[in-house]
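Hi all, a correction to my earlier message: I attached the wrong file for Prepilin type IV endopeptidase peptidase domain-containing protein. Here's the right sequence:
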Amino acid sequence: MPAAVVVLGTGAAWAGLATVGPAWTAFVLAALAVPLVAADLRHRRLPDVLTLPAYPLFVAVAPDPAKALAAAAVFAGAHLAVHLLAPRAMGAGDVKLAGALGAALGSAGWLALPAAAVLAAVVTTVLAATRRWPDGVPHGPGLLAAATTLVLIRPG
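and the right structure:
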């Protein structure tokens, strides 16, 4: 995906978020989501250069940093278990991204974690149904869509 599309997509996401006035967590999600989705759809990779710095960013903007760290551990742990049981079903990049997104989801409440897992699975299923993915269906777009949605609606 051309860099201009990523820049414009991120700008559009920020502009949309500014109209609803969410917390900083949503702005960080928007900044990371567009390039991560583009990379995962195109290359089936979630680059460490984007996923790893997300951890301290989400903890820094979290209203409760301890809860963010705990939620990161829970969400990453669940995804790590899936990765270990079925490595072809979920890549290591998805696990790293899940941990960072868990920190973001912690600001939306504990119910956001299982809800995000279900929503991400639905988005991934839709992606799988839309075309053939010879190198595996990307799960990052589902994780990012679910996390962004739940951070914005804050289910509790």
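Sorry for the mix-up. The chain has one domain: 3-153.
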